[in-house]
Design a protein that fits this description.
The protein is mainly beta.
């Protein structure tokens, strides 16, 4: 009876381990924090340090460029501050947002571009409209579309406006992903490129 019990326990452990086995994976990437990205065909998923898949394969994850041990650039999705970049095609334009570590969309895709989070903050590009006049013949306002950069927190709240608007951009931005011209240089410190291609440093 004792031997039978030991066999049953061993079998349970074995089958439990077997059930967690992941197979037919095309690429496995290094751990970044607590999670590693894996790739199958054109989709990506995440596993934890126990080898358990915590986010299933999906096609909306955004890749980040990293250097490997041979100083070669490799690209794969990452989590920073519990957030991973995603993108969604709406019309002719991709919009960027974020999921949490359960794969739940916590910041909806609404930005023309976004950085990964760093120390609890990310830089994003938003569009807005600026009224520049009124057309009395057509009886409608004349507006200019503006791209602006902001700092957001992990809840998606706008924390800091960055003073480098780009005016007269198309209503539906189809020219690829706009470049983010600001950058974090320290926690709560961001460098902003101005219209005259000089830099300003802002604290937030």
């Amino acid at each position: 009876m004792k031997k039978l019990l030991i066999l049953l326990v061993c079998f349970s452990v074995y089958t439990g381990v077997f059930a967690q086995t992941l197979s037919d994976i095309d690429e496995v990437y290094p751990f970044h924090g607590d999670f590693a990205a894996i790739k199958k065909a054109n989709q990506w998923a995440f596993v934890n340090k126990e080898g358990k898949k915590i986010i299933d394969f999906r096609s909306d994850l955004v890749l980040t460029n990293r250097l490997n041990s041979l100083n070669q650039t490799i690209s794969y999705p990452v989590f920073n501050d519990g957030r991973c970049l995603i993108r969604k095609l709406m019309g002719d334009t991709y919009y960027y947002g974020f999921i949490n570590e359960k794969g739940v969309e916590v910041i909806k895709p609404q930005f023309l571009n976004a950085t990964n989070f760093s120390n609890g903050y990310a830089i994003v590009v938003l569009t807005s409209k600026d009224s520049i006049g009124f057309n009395y013949v057509l009886k409608k306002a004349v507006v200019s579309n503006i791209m602006e950069e902001y700092v957001i927190n992990t809840s998606g709240e706008l924390v800091k406006y960055l003073y480098n608007p780009r005016k007269n951009v198309p209503a539906n931005y189809k020219n690829g992903v706009p470049i983010i011209e600001s950058k974090f240089i320290a926690p709560n410190l961001v460098a902003v490129k101005t219209k005259n291609k000089k830099w300003e440093i802002h604290q937030f």
